[in-house]
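Lab meeting notes turned into a lecture example. A postdoc, R.K., suggested we walk through two folding results consecutively so the class can see how the record format repeats. The first protein's sequence and structure tokens come next.
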Amino acid sequence: MEITASMVKELRDKTNAGMMDCKKALAETSGDIEKAIDYLREKGLSKASKKADRIAAEGLTYALVSECGKKGAVVEVNSETDFVAKNEEFKNFVETVAQVVLNQEVKDVEALKAVKVEGGKTLQETLTDKIAKIGENMSIRRFAVEKVENGAVVAYIHAGGKISVIVALESEGNKEALDVLGKDLAMQVAAMNPKYISTDDVDPEFIAHEREILIAQALNEGKPKNIVEKMVEGRLQKELKEVCLLEQAYVKDGDITVKKHIENTAKNIGKDIKVAGVQRYEVGEGIEKKSENFAEEVAKQMGQ
């Protein structure tokens, strides 16, 4: 398979590895980007500890909690430019979308867009009107809901809507204390972006895959086979602490884990507390937007 410059660039963007290393990795893996990322990690050539999709799309996220404090919603609505994302009309529309998600039981984005709002129009019709008025394409991308029978759902919006988080806490404890804890945890999630709540939630396939990568890494580093297994388990546990919320170092007090902070709060209020759900939305994550060469774009417009 021919290895193109664009393939090399994509791999380099995702791993920060050298250009020739990326080209070799793609050649060794028949152009498979995911396998090439693993290859570079195994060889210790990937400078990025975790592969991440480039965040390029614009727009806003928004999080909202019901008056009773037991249900929360988080949404993402995309726009083409950051300029439109700062438009008050756009902001108001995003808040309306979140309110609809909170108040209605909708199963997917298509059902959400069909809900009628003020004026008798559907959300999609309202959005179409705004697209015509503002002159830029916009779309409702996704939403999520968390609710509890007993306890509290807490929302946190970071950087004016670049990141929004909702955290659901199951507990018979004092709501004020749960709200404070929920805010702390939501800020933790916004900053540290855990993939899982606890190690019990980790996909066994993820662990098996990471173990294979770490073993290959250790062997390529020339480590003796008889110590590789023990060393790999240590590295794996360290990685799990980074991706699991409860195992992470608490950002407000690095001497304790998030789990310990929750236990301390539970002790203070005399009631057990369980993190029942977490949702974190960051604008544009997983979407790669085409980047234009400005000189080429101007030349194109001038007909050159």
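The second example is placed directly after the first for contrast:
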Amino acid sequence: MTTSIHITALDGVVNVNSLFTFAVFVGLAWNPRDPNNSLILDQTCTPDSRVMEDMISFHIYSFSAFLFSSLVALGLKQAIRLSGPTWTTSAAGGDHDSFASFLGQVNKGMVRVGMLVSGVGSVVGCVFLMLALINVVQIKLGTLSCASGSGHSAAAIVPLVILVPVALLIYVSIVLYAFLRS
């Protein structure tokens, strides 16, 4: 039972990381009907090249963290499946699953640490993706420090910097609870 829960949790990590990785690539490639790649009306609000460089860097860091997390989760899942249940034959001739033998083959401590490391990778990826999106907003709507254009930029960024950290706090709390309880 516990091992199937671990495998399901690892599948969830890989699926979510895949969605975020897709979002990274869409964020780098998306340019809806905007040949200048911005919606800035006041040219004094145009960000410098450092903001654009940071956006690309944060996208790459995010991708790397999600890939790391997914590879750790897939490796754990594969290790759990490879050390899968051994089938024994009972005296009556019927096959049954020797669950006790299966649990003895899985190093529960390594699974817990691996799941924790995978969760940390996902959190780091989300933080870098949020930072990249903040830079996307500045590129599209104007820098946050610009007096005339910052209202739209701030309005776009405020929900991002509130909702993402709250969601990450909930995620980390649940992962730590599961880590301490398993």
